[in-house]
Amino acid sequence: MDTAVQVITLVIGGYLIGSIPSAYLFARWLKGKNLLTIGTGSATATAAFLHVSKLAGILGLLGEVMKGLACLYVGHVLVGELWGYLVVLVSGIIGANWSVWLKGGGGRGQTMLLVGIAALSPLALPFLGVVFGAAMAITRRMFISTHVFNISLPFVFGLVNRSWIFAAAGAALSIVFLIKQRRTNDDLVQSGRLGTFSR
Could you tell me if 10 and 89 are in contact, meaning their C-beta atoms sit under 8 angstroms apart? Predict the structure, then answer.
């Protein structure tokens, strides 16, 4: 298969997989609730857990994990190389954030990100955990700490993996998350469940 065709297939396939709104669907099926009209309007597993039911949240989370694994499987079948995995994963996360099925609405894609990191760069997980934990300890603000985490992605990916491809993917994901993750669309922060960190 020609490389250009592979890229196009990965982008489209990843986007369509990521755009499946699992949390939204489970909220609808289990309780008849529309996540787009509840809380912050984000179709995330967290929103389903907080505003619908624990079962809806857990099933939504499992759905997000399966989407991440499905993206990686598509990357394996079509290319089987690092760049292919990263292209399909980034495309899937974009789909999760701006789903065609929800007319541009969606979740946040962070579960898919964690699945991808665990599979492709497990050594990056503890470093990212330290970055987020340190930001929380210093600022005591979930919103700022999340943005510090997002901004750190290209640097951590690039340094841990010593790969410009990883750094580029991290930069793309950082931009996606910074655009999507405004304070107003974080249900966990809005709910006040984090106490003094919910600022």
Answer: no
Note the pLDDT tens digit of each residue in 11-44. Answer: 999 999 999 999 999 999 999 999 999 888 889 9
What pLDDT, in 10s, does the model give residues 59-103? 999 999 999 999 999 999 999 999 999 999 999 999 999 999 999
Residue indicated by tokens 């984090």: 194
- Contacts by 55-61, CB closer than 8 A, 24 or more apart: 55/26, 55/30, 56/23, 56/26, 56/27, 56/30, 56/31, 57/23, 59/22, 59/26, 59/30, 60/22, 60/23, 60/24, 60/26, 60/27, 61/23, 61/111
Q: How many domains does the chain have?
A: 1
Rounded Cα gap, residues 9 and 124, in angstroms: 28
- How many beta carbons lie within 10 A of that of residue 181, not counting itself? 20
For residue 14, the enclosing domain spans 3-197
Angle between helices 82-97 and 54-78 (to 10 degrees): 150
| Percent share of the chain, pLDDT over 90 | 74
The model's pTM: 0.90
Residue 36 near residue 27 (C-beta atoms within 8 A)? no
pLDDT at 146 over 60: yes
Residue of 185, 189, 193, 190 lying closest to 141 (CA atoms):
189
